[in-house]
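ASSEMBLY PREDICTION REQUEST
Request ID: AP-0331
Submitted by: J.K., bench scientist
Number of chains: two
Total residues: 426
Priority: normal
Notes: Please return the full assembly, not individual chains.
Input sequences:
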Amino acid sequence: MPAARQLELVINGERRSAEVEPRTLLVHALRDGLGLTGTHVGCDTSQCGACTVLLDGRAVKSCTMLAVQAEGAEVTTIEGFARNDELHPIQRAFVEHHGLQCGFCTPGMILTASDLLTRAPDPDDATIRRALRGNFCRCTGYQSIVDSVRAAATALREGEAA
Amino acid sequence: MEHVRPSTLDEALEGLAAPDAKALAGGQSLLPVMKLRIVRPSVLVDIGRLELGGVHMSENELRLGALTTWNELESAQELERPALAALAECASGIGDLQVRNRGTLGGSLAHADPASDMPAVVLALGAQIVLRAASGERTVSAEEFFLGPFTTALGPAELITEVVFPLVEGSGSAYVKVEHPASGFALAGAAAVVRPDGGQSVALTGMGGQAFLLASDANPVDALPDAEIYGDRFAPVEYRRHLAGVVARRALDRARERMEGTGE
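STATUS: Completed
Returned structure:
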């Protein structure tokens, strides 16, 4: 078996290192190696999106990426969203608009929404639904998630204007 | 399994000479089949950071680097013209946002899933695929490239470096699919090109072992009854043949509207 090696990357703004094998998936390096268990494994077959993280700002499924592919990159997980105990505007919108029930899919939803909202700050509902196509929720139906993302978009735009 | 990340194309080609070596680009096709133990490489040659991306437009052709992602294709302003609209239209319907952020043109063509979308577009647009090995470079047409399910003309130690599309001024193109509602893969997909001289091409995907061009003397749709089409539990043969006609006609109509400037 090939030896494990030290992987260096920047996670949530902090330089971190973890011991990984070449075959280790990024999601396992995050959860098991670095203790960042906010990134969830739902399906392990790149369908459900619960494992979504940002890689250099873009949403990716961390179950469909080797940890070594992220070497040197900037990874953002859900743990990187709240600042000083204050929820990120996208998180707050999910709370206020009932964007979750059990919460399992929520980290992935928020990370995908974050990618969408950096590219399209004022998306219509069809654009939001299209962006969330790779994220499954098995509790709520999607309407309140779409409402949450729309509200988050407004909050982020207003925050920028302020 | 080993993982190597060569810093040059030559080093990558050297690495691919090892037995059971596999090139890893975005990994959106390769990692899922590795998880299923269908593919078990001894070495993964990670080409993801080589300079093989980019959309390069010249007067008479478009060159797309093999590492161009679906997301780059769907948002490339160079492709916002009727002759090439099928490319962005097809890319924007692949997988989901996360997959389009990572998945690459070259990776998908090399994987050659018989239900993947882009093979139909490269066939209809008459693309040439540039392959590089340690011994040199060769170019094969899209028609010569796809040989069967997950099977292509790509040799074990070769890499796709570029895909080259001829620019036919004044033509229109489109891609239309009926997709499986869960997987998003094409139950029937059609790419169409309509040219100002009256010529038209249609290529189909999701129909059988590989994407293919319909013989196109006059109306390509007339060749449908003779096309070899497979049935499966999602779509029996006759239903799929019917869908093929529907998507082919819609794609031709949309391509014509774009050529005439009456569509979007």
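REVIEWER COMMENTS: Chain B has nine helices and 14 strands.
SIGN-OFF: pending second reviewer
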